[in-house]
Design brief:
alpha+beta; 11 helices; globular; OB_MEIOB_N; DNA-binding; Meiosis specific with OB-fold; meiosis
Length: about 450
């Protein structure tokens, strides 16, 4: 299998082997480590620098990429992309990996190989996933492990010290994201730390700690009480000082944000409303899937209605008048900035009813619309209207999160986690199943 663009062909990661001459590959970055320096054995007194990342080009295949070289080259390359970016790699060296040694410190991959990037022979380019293949974007929401293979936070807490030092998977929602703390280590190296509090239906506050810049930057994009993460291969330890269990992001860890693969329950709109209202006022959200369509999408009239400024620290929508964030008020305004983001209200409809004023925001809106905020802002009104009618009334598979909200119009606040055109056979089978359930009732 190969992918193609207007300029070159890309080899699928699953087709790579050491005898392949000058391969070109493409993938979305799903994991990345910080730059590190090591003593150069060939040049005493100098250092070689390295960092690694993991790319994915299909639901079942991903591979680790290592880069070694001069400090200037390695730092420049590392700073050129982040987790979530799409990269193309020209002429990497394909090497067999030492499974046990490689997987001790790197993410476990299905590939027998790893890629090595050379400053003299390889070229890494960053490009918009929208330009290359929009399917790559959906891979960001697919866990790299079995989505049902995880510990609840309550299980980790209950098992306590018996799990000390274990590496396992966690599925939880984000309660809060702490401010990064910076320090100098005893050997004069710069360090950083950020603590995130997670919660699920079994535990209301569980700390996960990030020590590297890459995971800290990723954590800063999470929205408290909205973002859900699937963290594969985190290390859990018993913290004697705090007398509690904690999790730590390590070099093996890959974090999947809003992992829709872990959501399997299918609802009609009517069933969803009934389910949410049966929660007896509890704050726990309801996650599920609806096969329906967007029945209201107002994106072509007034752009200011669908674009908002968000705080770069906590990602909450900022006050429109003052353009300041009122949520993370304890952080000085000098260290905060804002960025533009989609914030669209849509109606979702199926054969049983309509769910009004659902949030389609941030990167999920970009995936659904197939364009970035910057690209959207350049569209003329007729182009925005055409884009709207590409999505309206098209049967879709919609992943959502619902929470009770008395101040909301319907009493329910709905956030769309993913919205893609539905497979006709899958959608019809789901509809038939729901009708049979209705008859049985």
């Amino acid at each position: 299998m190969a992918y193609s663009s207007s300029t070159r062909d890309f080899v699928a990661l699953s087709d790579l082997h050491p005898n392949l001459a000058r391969p070109n590959v493409i993938g979305v970055v799903i994991g990345k480590t910080d730059v590190r320096g090591f003593p150069d054995r060939k040049n005493i007194g100098s250092e070689r620098y390295t960092f690694s990342f993991t790319i994915r080009d299909s639901p079942t295949y991903f591979i680790n990429v290592n880069s070694w070289g001069r400090e200037e080259y390695i730092r420049s390359l590392s700073e050129s992309f982040r987790v979530g970016d799409c990269v193309t790699i020209e002429n990497p060296l394909v090497q067999s990996k030492d499974g046990e040694k490689e997987e001790k410190f790197n993410p476990i991959t299905p590939s027998c190989y790893k890629l090595l990037i050379s400053e003299n022979h390889s070229v890494v380019k960053t490009s918009s996933c929208y330009e290359m293949d929009t399917k790559l974007l959906s891979l960001l929401h697919l866990p790299v492990k079995d989505p049902q293979d995880y510990y609840s936070l309550g299980d980790i807490t209950a098992n306590g010290q018996s799990l000390d030092g274990r590496i396992l998977n966690v599925l939880a929602a984000v309660m809060s994201v702490g401010e990064p703390k910076y320090f100098i280590t005893s050997d004069k190296r710069k360090g950083q730390r950020c603590e995130v509090k997670l919660y699920d239906e079994t535990e209301m506050s569980f700390p996960i700690i990030c020590w590297d810049n890459e995971s800290i930057q990723l954590a800063q994009s999470w929205i408290p009480r909205e973002t859900v993460i699937f963290a594969s291969d985190v290390r859990v330890n018993f913290d004697k000082f705090r007398n509690c269990m904690t999790a730590t992001v390590i070099s093996k860890t890959i974090i999947t944000t809003n992992p829709v693969e872990t959501i399997v329950d299918v609802y009609t709109v009517k069933q969803l409303k009934e389910k949410a209202l049966q929660s007896d006022g509890k704050p726990e959200p309801v996650f599920g899937i609806i096969y329906g369509y967007i029945s209201m999408l107002d994106i072509d009239d007034n752009v200011s209605k669908v674009i908002r400024n968000r705080c770069s620290v906590c990602r909450f929508v900022v006050n429109e008048m003052s353009n300041t964030c009122t949520f993370c008020g304890d952080i000085s305004s000098d260290s905060k900035s804002t960025f533009v983001s989609f914030d669209i209200l849509v109606d979702l409809t199926d054969h049983t009813g309509t769910l009004y004023s659902c949030y389609l925001s941030d990167c999920v809106a970009e995936e659904t619309l197939g364009c970035t905020v910057q690209e959207f802002l350049t569209l003329a009104e007729d182009k925005r209207t055409a884009l709207k009618w590409q999505l309206l009334l098209e049967r879709s598979k919609i992943y959502f999160k619902i929470t009770l909200s008395p101040n909301w119009r319907s009493g329910l606040k709905a956030n769309i986690l993913s919205c893609k055109l539905a497979n006709p056979i899958e959608a019809s089978q789901s509809l038939l199943g729901k009708k049979l359930q209705h008859v049985a009732w």
